[in-house]
Write a structure and sequence with these properties.
alpha/beta, 207 residues, single chain
Length: 207
């Protein structure tokens, strides 16, 4: 099986030369930083284009009109930095990268500044820093029950939730419904057929 590489990504997402250049520079910064701090699993770096870049960019095709995004628990910048790179040419776009850990925020700010991205890094708790956006997203942050608590302020301001989850997404949704009432849909991830993208709209505490 042919590995999924930068050429495959460029063809699938019709990425420009400028976008590809920014993604390459981001990957290099990530690789360098990952040697001294735990941002992503080292074994995932060889498959970075599929495991991280494609996994993140696929969200744009689920909300093609969305210009404003909030990435909760932004961590290494997936999906938020990838979204900001792909949206960079849109002067009305903006991505908020929210994380509670200072060292991760410093890394994110360095990337945002070096690539001149339309993005703002917020060092703090997601649920305490709600901004008004079209889409709120997260990857590998928490089970759905807890994640929806973090996302509640954004969803209640009208945002759509698009959350990257693993093969236990349906189980997590069932557990979350014991605490929350919401509408949801599941889509199969392009980067891994076992993965799911959970789309959520509207939320309130279950009675």
């Amino acid at each position: 099986m042919t590995p999924y590489d930068s050429s495959a990504f460029q063809a699938e997402f019709d990425a420009t030369a400028a976008q590809m250049g920014d993604l390459e520079r981001f990957i290099q910064r990530l690789t360098d930083a990952n040697a001294v701090m735990n941002l992503v699993g080292p074994d995932t770096i060889p498959d970075v284009w599929n495991r991280h870049i494609r996994d993140s960019a696929q969200l744009l095709q689920m909300a093609p009109e969305a210009q404003t995004w909030a990435d909760l628990g932004a961590g290494a910048g997936f999906p938020g930095i990838v979204l900001a790179i792909m949206l960079k040419k849109d002067p009305k776009s903006h991505v908020w990268l929210i994380d509670s850990l200072g060292k991760r925020c410093r890394f994110l700010r360095e990337v945002v500044d070096s690539l001149s991205l339309r993005a703002t890094v917020i060092n703090g708790r997601a649920e305490e820093n709600a901004v008004t956006v079209r889409v709120v997203t997260a990857r590998a942050v928490a089970p759905m029950e807890k994640l929806l608590g973090y996302a509640q302020p954004y969803l209640q301001r009208g945002a759509q939730g698009l959350f990257l989850k693993g093969e236990k997404a349906e189980v997590e949704l069932a557990e979350a419904r014991r605490v929350w009432q919401f509408q949801s849909d599941l889509s199969v991830s392009r980067s891994d057929p076992r993965g799911r993208i959970v789309s959520v709209r509207g939320i309130r505490r279950a009675r």
